[in-house]
């Protein structure tokens, strides 16, 4: 669905990589100082005070996660109360090893998706089981019975799908119980960003901008934009193909509440502020560009690939496209950690928008419910749901056909979308 800058690690490259890291760090520091001179961004990436943390954790727990040489730690903050959860096996070495294994498996998958799909799912299974045992299991023991929590994943933990951590459970539909089955989990880079996002979350969510396939290489994503447009009552603005220029998108973002990007995205791992979204004419809308705009958006959906991946070479700074969007004036962002398959993604987006606009006003909870539905329903149940929606007039015929076509070739009682690759890439950042 997209191509992105890949991890830049490997033996024999240490000296060169150190030079590049130092240069990237200097560049990042200079950009941060430049941004802080802009009105309204004086506290950009500044360390929060405990008052900031206490305010952010007043409504739901805020969970800080970090690895260390001698073992990791989770701090579960509820207002002015802080619970310490030791994570003895979450060492820097074990985390680096797991991230290396994760990215090696992903690199092989990106190079040959059909041949490496099974191996990639094995990598995902291995990674997320480790995340349960060493990170999320102990944290959820402390969080229960909270209905929701916000994770501040320090360093390289931000590269991994913490919401998809799992353990075996014979009573569950798929034989597993995942972290997101316990409660609604979202992410934030820091307490101040979360507080600002919550203020934006109280704004309107009616006017839509849909940016559709500027590169003319993703014909299936047109259906996503139609699903989003059906869910939002005000007349949508659609920028498709060559009309989706940087200038047009920048201007349109100033006049809408929700933006859906059905196009290629990429993560620049060495210089995260250059991460962005590919638009028409070979140009990109970068995080640096977005920070220069005075945005007030309720939601941005990045239905592209790897848009949530932060820079691995600067683990102390969690700067990714979604977390940077929080700083730029976006209340919440749906984004992915890896390349996502077309049909399950369309199914996920269809369910997300339906649930958010009709049943569940909290978008993080709507995303969670959509992921559970895509994961747990059988092929036959999906086909029946699409037929019902078509008959009710809530799903256009061509969209229903696109969702059903592949499933008609599968065994009715199977769950073709139960694999982690199909549903777990997407996470919610913000409020």
What's the structural blueprint in terms of helices and strands?
Blueprint: H1 14-36, H2 50-56, E1 62-66, E2 72-78, E3 81-87, H3 92-111, H4 113-143, E4 148-153, E5 166-168, E6 176-178, H5 179-182, E7 184-187, H6 191-201, E8 208-212, H7 222-231, E9 237-240, H8 246-253, E10 258-262, E11 265-266, E12 276-278, E13 284-286, H9 287-291, E14 299-302, H10 321-328, E15 332-336, H11 342-358, H12 363-376, H13 379-392, H14 397-404, H15 420-423, E16 426-430
Parallel strand pairs: 1-4, 4-7, 8-9, 8-10, 10-14, 14-15
Antiparallel strand pairs: 1-2, 2-3, 5-6, 11-12, 12-13, 15-16
Helix pairs in contact: 2-6, 3-4, 7-11, 11-12, 13-14
Notable features of this structure?
single chain; 431 residues; alpha/beta; six-stranded mixed sheet; 15 helices; 16 strands; globular; disordered N terminus
